[in-house]
Amino acid sequence: MGFVSKVEEPPAVTERLAYSVREAADLLGVNYFSVYRLIQRDKLKACRALRGKILVPRTELLKLLKTE
Question: Which tens digits make up the pLDDT trace of 16-28?
Answer without folding.
Answer: 899 999 999 999 9
